[in-house]
């Protein structure tokens, strides 16, 4: 038997601490470990309480998303009986202030991020009216395109992009959406997917509905503004009276030339692609385009063509002749 202490047999108390069968010989080791764990739990709880306190102090935030095309059409029809923007004026600043006041009442413990005003413009160039709206405090104007039929293009995708982005960044907790197009359903779903609540605001329809049912099904709440709410912000424009109404009417050739002149101007202003969209409809023009043509011709001639069917046909003939010659 080797008496060298270096070769002394190991005892139970000499087991390595990493040995799974090892148990501390002293209760003090267990007590220290529990105390350290408790300290870490207390520290974690303290951090959570601080975070919750900060969240509680941070006010919720809301934004208002306005489809201007919907507002013009719905409010104009409700107050004046027509959707044609040329027939009335909209006090956009007054209506935006009314929306802000309403949101302040509904979201009492929330602050306004801003109002987003979505509209269409040819080549996305601001009109003077849109410029004045863009200069309002807390208002952001976002422009889609306007095609040859005076239809907005790209507005719904802009609304979806903004709604989804703000919800994803937790920049808003509530969104008031003023619109009615079914294409907005995907925007609502995207925002809700990130935890935001979406509230649909609409304008009273004289007959039936002016908001898509699938959109009504998806939102968190609905609110409708009636005639009394809209009336102060819509003013019908006076009918134009020309000084030379008593003079003989212009000739068909003169009116045809004016039609060609307008077509040439529109090709430059609206672009060849937009004007080419009209060609498949020959010899008919979409209602809004035909109305624009008539208004512009009357402005150039300084004479009303209402009630002159022959002259109106000559006007369209001149328009189509020039347009077809370009394509």
From TrEMBL:
Pfam families: NYN (PF01936)
Disordered: annotated span: 1-28
Single annotated GO MF: RNA nuclease activity
Bias (Basic and acidic residues): 13-28
Domain annotation NYN: ranges: 63-204
Superkingdom of origin: Bacteria
Transmembrane feature ranges: none
Protein name per its UniProtKB record: NYN domain-containing protein
């Amino acid at each position: 038997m080797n008496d060298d202490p270096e070769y002394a047999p190991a005892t139970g108390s000499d087991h390595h601490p990493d040995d799974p069968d090892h148990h501390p010989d002293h209760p003090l080791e267990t007590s220290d470990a529990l105390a350290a764990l408790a300290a870490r739990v207390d520290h974690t709880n303290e951090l959570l309480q601080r975070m919750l306190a900060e969240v509680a102090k941070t006010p919720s935030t809301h934004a208002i998303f306005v489809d201007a095309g919907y507002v013009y059409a719905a409010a104009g029809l409700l107050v004046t009986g027509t959707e044609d923007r040329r027939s009335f004026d909209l006090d956009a600043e007054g209506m935006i202030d009314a929306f802000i006041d309403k949101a302040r009442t509904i979201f009492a413990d929330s602050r306004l991020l801003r109002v987003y005003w979505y509209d269409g413009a040819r080549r996305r160039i601001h009109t003077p009216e849109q410029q004045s709206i863009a200069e309002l405090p807390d208002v952001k104007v976002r422009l889609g395109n306007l095609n040859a039929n005076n239809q907005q293009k790209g507005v719904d995708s802009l609304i979806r992009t903004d709604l989804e982005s703000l919800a994803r960044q937790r920049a808003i907790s509530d969104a008031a959406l003023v619109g009615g197009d079914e294409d907005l359903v995907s925007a609502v779903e995207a925002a809700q997917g990130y935890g935001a609540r979406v509230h649909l605001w609409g304008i009273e329809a004289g007959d039936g509905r002016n908001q898509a049912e699938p959109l009504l099904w998806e939102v968190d709440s609905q609110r409708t503004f009636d005639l009394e709410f809209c009336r102060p912000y819509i003013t019908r424009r006076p009918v134009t009276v020309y000084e030379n109404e008593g003079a003989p009417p212009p000739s068909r050739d003169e009116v045809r030339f004016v039609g060609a002149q307008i077509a040439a101007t529109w090709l430059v202003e609206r672009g060849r692609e937009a004007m080419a969209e009209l060609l498949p409809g020959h010899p008919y023009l979409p209602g809004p385009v035909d109305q624009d043509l008539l208004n512009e011709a009357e402005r150039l001639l300084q004479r009303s063509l209402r009630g002159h069917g022959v002259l109106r046909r000559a006007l369209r003939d001149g328009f189509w002749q020039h347009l077809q010659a370009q394509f």
